[in-house]
């Protein structure tokens, strides 16, 4: 599973479907899902979403890239999609997250 995780993290902007991930490790979709949950503690789709959000947070903290650029780089494709997932998981928008992070960093 580790080579697949590395591949996903290295290409978050790619189209990662369950079928595609399963094929990467030569498993059927259901078998892959069971093994993935065992290895990573979450279903592949949920893990991928959280990994994209984690990387978006890092880019918002460490770069001056626009929210649109961050969304594209982490595989959300559009800023609106990033905003929706960010808000649902973190309770804030990407722009507000960046502002708060920068305010804390400058204190």
Low-confidence blocks of residues: none
Gyration radius from CA atoms, angstroms: 15 Å
N- to C-terminal distance: 41 Å
β-strand percent reads under 5%
Give me the number of helical elements: 7
Sheet/helix structural class: mainly alpha
CATH topology: Arc Repressor Mutant, subunit A
Major beta sheet summary:
none
**Into which percent range does the helicity of residues fall?**
over 70%
Give the total of domains: 1
Q: What would you say the CATH architecture is? A: Orthogonal Bundle
Shape category = elongated
Overall average pLDDT: 95
Total beta strands: 0
Question: What's the CATH class label?
Answer: Mainly Alpha
Order of helices and strands: HHHHHHH
Fourth CATH level, the homologous superfamily:
Homeodomain-like
Question: Could you explain the architecture of this structure?
Answer:
With 107 residues, the chain is mostly helical. It has one domain: Arc Repressor Mutant, subunit A. 74% of the residues lie in helices and 0% in strands. The chain is built from 7 helices and no strands. It has helices at 2-10, 18-24, 29-40, 44-62, 67-73, 79-90, 94-106. Helix 4 (44-62) packs across helix 7. The longest helix has 19 residues, at 44-62. The radius of gyration is 15 Å and the shape is elongated. The model has no long low-confidence stretch (mean pLDDT 95).
Provide the fold topology.
Blueprint lengths: L1 H9 L7 H7 L4 H12 L3 H19 L4 H7 L5 H12 L3 H13 L1
Helix pairs in contact: 2-3, 4-6, 4-7, 5-6
């Amino acid at each position: 599973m580790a080579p697949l995780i590395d591949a996903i993290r290295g290409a978050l902007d790619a189209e990662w479907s369950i079928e595609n991930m399963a094929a990467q490790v030569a498993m059927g979709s259901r078998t892959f899902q069971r093994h993935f949950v065992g290895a990573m503690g979450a279903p592949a789709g949920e893990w991928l979403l959280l990994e994209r959000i984690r990387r978006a947070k890092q880019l918002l903290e460490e770069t001056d890239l626009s929210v649109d650029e961050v969304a594209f780089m982490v595989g959300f494709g559009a800023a609106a999609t990033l905003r929706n997932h960010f808000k649902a998981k973190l309770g804030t928008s990407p722009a507000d997250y960046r502002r708060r992070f920068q305010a804390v960093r400058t204190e």
